[in-house]
Amino acid sequence: MKTLHEPARETPVAGEFDLCVIGGSCTGVFAAVRAARLGLSVAMVEQSFLLGGVATLAQVNEWHSLYDTAGRQIIGGLTADVLDKLRRRNLVLETRREGRGLCATFNSAELALDLDRLVVEHGIRLFLKASCVAAVGEDGKVDAAIIEDKSGRRAIAARFFIDASGDGDLLRQAGFGAWKNETLQPVNYQMLAAGLDRMMEGTGRDIWQQVRHRAADYGYPLANAVPWINRFPAPADLRNIYGPRLNGYDASDADQLTAAAMEGRRCLRSLLDMIRAELGPDVAAVSLAQALGVRETWHARCLHRLRAGELMDGTVFPDTIAQGTYPVDVHSPEGTVLRFLDGREQFIGRDGVATWRRWRDETAESPRCYHLPYRSLVPEGARNLLVAGRLIDADREAFGGVRVMVNMNQTGEAAGTAAFLALQGECAAAEVPTDRLKRMMVDGGSVLSLDEA
Ligand SMILES: Cc1cc2nc3c(=O)[nH]c(=O)nc-3n(C[C@H](O)[C@H](O)[C@H](O)COP(=O)(O)OP(=O)(O)OC[C@H]3O[C@@H](n4cnc5c(N)ncnc54)[C@H](O)[C@@H]3O)c2cc1C
C-alpha cells in the first residue's frame, strides 16, 4: 500500500478524567453511569451523533427476556430501569416468543432521548461525533485516548478506560490482543416505513409472502434474507423493517462498511419497489437507520474465552457478572441455527421456514440461564483497560448467544463498577476483587446470585 509521512505534532488535551469510555451504546452509557454513580469523573466518546449504538443508530428495537426459563428475574439494573421509563410512556410492546420468553419491542428514537438524559443527569462529559483513532501508553497502561472530532485531533487523559466500541478501536490501537472469526455474522440495514399495516389489514398474509415472487426481478437477495417487518411502538402506522442479512462483509474495514451500507440501502429500495408494484403506492420509507446493523467484528483476547459448552451447560463462574437466556443464534447464507438451553434447536432455512430438532438429548433438568465471567472482559496484559459489549472474548457459538443487548448491557454495568474498584484499590483490572464487584453491582441494582460459586 502506498503511504505518506505525516509530521509529528503536539496534541491538545481536551480533559483529564478518572474514566474514559469509548462508544456510547447502551453498554457504554451504562458503564459510564455506574461509574459516575460511584463518584468517578467520566468522559464518553461516541463516533455518531446519537447515543444507543445498534439499538438506536441501527434501529434494532428488541430486547429479550429479563427472566430465566423458570420465570425468575435474572437481569435488572439499568436495562430494567430504562425499559420501565419507556413502558410508562407507552413505548414498549411485549410479546412472548417461542423459546425466548417475553420480548420487549421499543421505540428506539425515544430510547436515545432517555440515554441523553441519563448522561446529563450523571454529569458525564460527552464527546459526540468523535472517533477514537489512537492510544497513548505503554507497559499495559493506557494514558490517553486520541480522538478526532470537529475540533481536530485531541487527547482524553484518564486513569482507566473501557472500550465499548464494538470494534476494539482503543484496545487494538493500544496494542492489546484481538481476534476475529473467519466467518463473521452478517450485517443488516434497517428503515422505518409507513403504510404497511393498512396494506396487511384483512389479507391474513404478511407482506413478504405477498411480494417474494418478485424478488429476482427487483434484485432482492434470497440467501437467508427474508426481511423482518417488526412493529414500532408509536401512534402511527409504522413498521421497522430489518433488511436482508448481508454476508461476507467485515464492518471494521472502512471500505467494506461503505459497500455494505450501500448494498443494504439498495435492498431496502428494491423491497419498497416490490411492495409498490404488488400492493399499490401507499407505502413509503420515513427514516433510514443512521448506522449499519453490525453483529460482530473483533473480539478482545482476554483472560478467559467463554466457550459454548460452558454457556449451554449453565456453568456458574466465581466471577459471574451477567446472566442470560437468549439462545445461541448463528446466521449464515444457508440459514439460521438457534440452540436453546432446553436442548431444542430451531433451523430457519433461506426461505424463512422453521423446523425443530434437538442439539442434545432430553434431560430431566436443563440450565435455567447461562453466565458470563468478568475475566472475559479483561484483556490479557491490560492494567487499566476493560472491554464491554460485543468485543467480549467468546467463541463463535457462545458469542451467538451472549451478543444480545440485555446481556451486553450487563457487561457495561460490570465494567463501570470494576473501573471504580480498580481505581479505589489501585490495582490492575485483573486484580479487581470479584466478590466485591458482584456485591457492588447488586447494591447498584443488578440481579446476581451472591452465594453461587
Ligand atoms: C440486524 C441485527 C439484529 C439484531 N437483533 C437483536 C435483537 O433483536 N435483540 C438484541 O438484543 N440484539 C440484537 N442484535 C445484537 C445487538 O444489537 C448487538 O450485539 C449489540 O447491540 C452490541 O452492543 P455493543 O454495545 O457492544 O455495540 P454497538 O451497539 O455496536 O455500539 C458500539 C458503539 O460504539 C461507537 N463506536 C464505534 N467505534 C467508535 C470509535 N472508534 N470511537 C467512538 N465511538 C465508536 C458506535 O458508534 C456505537 O455507538 C442484533 C444485531 C443486528 C446487527
What does this molecule look like?
There is one protein chain. By secondary structure, this protein is α+β, with helices and mostly antiparallel strands. The chain folds into two domains: 13-183 and 297-326 and 370-443, 3-Layer(bba) Sandwich (FAD/NAD(P)-binding domain); 190-288, no CATH class. 28% of the residues lie in helices and 26% in strands. It is built from twelve helices and 22 strands. The chain has helices at 26-37, 54-57, 77-88, 108-121, 169-173, 196-200, 207-211, 254-279, 308-312, 396-402, 405-425, 434-443; strands at residues 13-22, 42-46, 62-63, 92-97, 101-106, 125-128, 131-138, 141-149, 152-163, 178-180, 190-194, 228-231, 238-242, 284-288, 298-300, 320-324, 328-332, 335-339, 344-349, 354-358, 370-373, 385-387. Strands 1, 2, 6, 7, 8, 9 and 22 form a seven-stranded mixed β-sheet that branches. It has a four-stranded antiparallel β-sheet with strand order 12-13-11-14, with helices on one face. It is globular, with a radius of gyration of 22 Å. The mean pLDDT is 95. Bound molecules: flavin-adenine dinucleotide. Residues 22-25, 27, 45-48, 53-55, 57-58, 60, 62-64, 131-132, 164-167, 169, 188, 242, 293-295, 389-390, 403-406, 408 line the site of flavin-adenine dinucleotide. Flavin-adenine dinucleotide (FAD) is lined by residues 22-25, 27, 45-48, 53-55, 57-58, 60, 62-64, 131-132, 164-167, 169, 188, 242, 293-295, 389-390, 403-406, 408.
